[in-house]
């Protein structure tokens, strides 16, 4: 998942970015509302984390402008302001959640997972597809009761595929979820990770179908009995 962090304090931004990157997110950081609007216009993000106390245009106004411009990405407000009026104003401006500084990283990660689940119409931190279970909180994948070892980028691709199921996942969106401005990953790299995932999923009866010109979709492999029945029909 790719996140946009809007924070003008370099030390705070560095700490948040380090924590989020360590949790497997691709994070791009900007220090002003103006640069945030440019970033959202040019790139695709799964969520934005916005500080209120930005120079020139504050985070509340930025959130309002994002919503007014038709941007629907989840927005979490981070701020040192803890007055009720500030929280209400932030939510009324279009924010989806509001966290007061200082905060603990585990809570930030949990709230982000909740925002991303809601944006993808998922209701639990544990995703299921056939025998496959993906626990986004523990970052653990299992199929038929067996653990599936996934590297950080394999996990990102798997998580995105599961959140999109039963719809196909666009290849360009998978690439965006893998990369930030400070990383160079080509479109061919997506195919490499898809190939690796196929090798880990197919023994459990799960296929990754290529949708030509678009992306990929998780599908169950028909059992031999079902396949014979379909062939005879």
What does the secondary structure layout of this molecule look like, with pairings?
Blueprint: E1 2-6, H1 10-22, E2 26-30, H2 33-42, E3 47-51, H3 59-68, E4 75-79, H4 84-92, E5 97-100, H5 105-119, E6 126-129, E7 132-135, E8 140-143, E9 146-148, H6 152-164, E10 169-170, H7 171-178, H8 187-201, E11 206-211, E12 215-220, H9 224-232
Parallel strand pairs: 1-2, 1-3, 3-4, 4-5
Antiparallel strand pairs: 6-7, 7-8, 8-9, 10-12, 11-12
Helix pairs in contact: 2-3, 6-8
Question: What does this 3D model show about the protein?
Answer:
The protein is an alpha/beta fold. It has two domains: 2-119, Rossmann fold (3-Layer(aba) Sandwich); 126-224, Arc Repressor Mutant, subunit A. Helices cover 44% and strands 23% of the residues. The chain is built from nine helices and twelve strands. The strands form three sheets. The protein has a five-stranded parallel β-sheet with strand order 2-1-3-4-5, with helices on both faces. A hairpin with a 2-residue loop joins strand 8 and strand 9 (146-148). Helix 2 (33-42) packs parallel to helix 3 and helix 6 crosses helix 8. It starts with a strand and ends with a helix.
CATH class of the largest domain: Alpha Beta
The poorly predicted ranges are 224-233
Distance separating the two termini:
42 Å
Q: Rg, please?
A: 20 Å
Identify the notable features of this structure and list them briefly.
single chain; 233 residues; alpha/beta; Rossmann fold; Arc Repressor Mutant, subunit A; 5-stranded parallel beta sheet; 4-stranded antiparallel beta sheet; 9 helices; 12 strands; 44% helix; 23% strand
């Amino acid at each position: 998942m790719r996140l946009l962090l809007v924070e003008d304090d370099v030390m705070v931004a560095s700490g948040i970015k380090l924590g989020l990157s360590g949790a497997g997110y691709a994070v791009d950081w900007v220090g002003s509302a103006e640069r945030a609007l440019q970033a959202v216009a040019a790139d695709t993000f799964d969520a934005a984390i916005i500080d209120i106390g930005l120079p020139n245009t504050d985070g509340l106004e930025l959130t309002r402008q994002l919503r007014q411009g038709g941007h629907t990405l989840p927005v979490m407000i981070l701020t040192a302001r803890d007055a009720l009026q500030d929280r209400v104003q932030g939510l009324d401006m279009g924010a989806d959640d509001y966290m007061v500084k200082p905060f603990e990283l585990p809570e930030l990660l949990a709230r982000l997972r909740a925002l991303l689940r809601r944006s993808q119409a998922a209701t639990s931190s544990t995703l299921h597809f056939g025998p496959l279970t993906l626990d986004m909180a523990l970052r653990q994948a299992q199929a038929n009761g067996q653990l599936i070892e996934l590297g950080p980028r394999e996990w990102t691709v798997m998580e995105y595929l599961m959140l999109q199921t039963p719809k196909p996942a666009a290849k360009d969106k998978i690439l965006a979820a893998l990369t930030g401005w400070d990383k160079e990953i080509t479109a061919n790299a997506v195919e490499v990770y898809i190939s690796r995932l196929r090798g880990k999923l197919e023994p459990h009866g799960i296929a990754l179908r290529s949708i030509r010109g678009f992306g990929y979709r998780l599908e169950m492999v028909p059992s031999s009995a079902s396949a014979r029945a379909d062939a005879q029909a």
